[in-house]
Amino acid sequence: MSANAERVKAVVLDLDGVIYRGHTSIPGAKQTAGWLHRTGRQVYYFTNNSTKTRDSYVELLAGYGITSDIEHIVTSASLTARYFCDNGLLPATVLVVGEAGLPAELRRAGVRVVRRRGNRPIDYVVVGMDRKFTYRKLHEAQQAIRSGAAFIATNRDATYPVEGNVIPGGGSIVAAVATAAQKDPLVIGKPSPEAGRLIAHQAGVPPDQVLMVGDRLETDIEMGRRAGLLTCLVLTGISRAEEVQALPPESRPHWTIPSIAQLPDLLQGSGASHEEAQ
Question: Which residues of the chain fall short of a pLDDT of 70?
Fold first, then answer.
């Protein structure tokens, strides 16, 4: 059966490469966000970045003329917190390796966050991007996991885009901990299907009525396909149109459009888009 864009009730928008690129707004992003709200669709903004709080992203989007609230901002940190809540894992003591946004989101959900093991038992080790990562942090995480703590990663992105360059991403930190502990983590953020399922559950709609819009085939689109969401690739970020054809049909986005500016046309059943066979 062909995918039907007109049945979409919730839209998940990646940020960098979809809404903005670096510090520059992508033409049509503000107008499309406003149109989605006016047509009654739920709109979520999703980033794999675990270093910032959702409040900071509300402020960031406001700078681009887009209105949102923390309930519609999704970060890999907030998804990790939701994972604890939705799976009945509270109370829990969690050793965190990551920057300010990660412990803040976990504490907001009722998780007891620690930075060092001490004499207390550790239930989980949660690892994200950490630009102050040290050997001590690596050792603390390793020992907690080897002592029985479950291992969770916010994401496994090897690199993180910055203006005109890339730097080591959260996945680089996760890889170090996984190597030291000799254990692979449960991954919450993109491209894990867990991320898509958690967002659909939060939106309260079936996965096949949620549209994931992203610029990366290997994260945004892969997550959406694996979670049973509808998917749309925009060509204003990382992945190119020719890369789509190199993928097996089941891994391709349902649609490819030039930019977010064409999303209203797609959702109304018109405009230039390329639907893949289902």
Answer: 1-2, 161-163, 270-278
Q: Is there a single domain that holds both residue 123 and residue 154?
A: yes
> Is position 69 annotated as part of the catalytic site?
no
90-129 per-residue burial string, b: 16 or more CB within 10 A, e: under 16 = eebbbbbbbbebbbbbbeebebebbeebeeeebbbbbbbb
Instruction: For residue 174, give its domain range.
Output: 89-187
In a domain, 128, yes or no: yes
Q: Which of 16, 157, 215, 220 is catalytic?
A: 16
Rounded to the nearest 10 degrees, what angle do helices 193-203 and 76-86 cross at? Answer: 70
55 in active site:
no
Write the pLDDT tens digit of every residue in 237-249.
889 999 999 999 9
Catalytic, out of 14, 123, 157, 220: 14
3-state secondary structure of 13: strand
- Which of the listed residues 134, 152, 187 is the one where a domain comes to its end? 187
CA distance 99 to 122: 19
Both tokens assigned to 124: 């989980």
Co-location of 196 and 162 in the same domain: no
Enter the tokens of residue 40. Answer: 């009654």
Domain boundary (187, 206, 236) is at 187
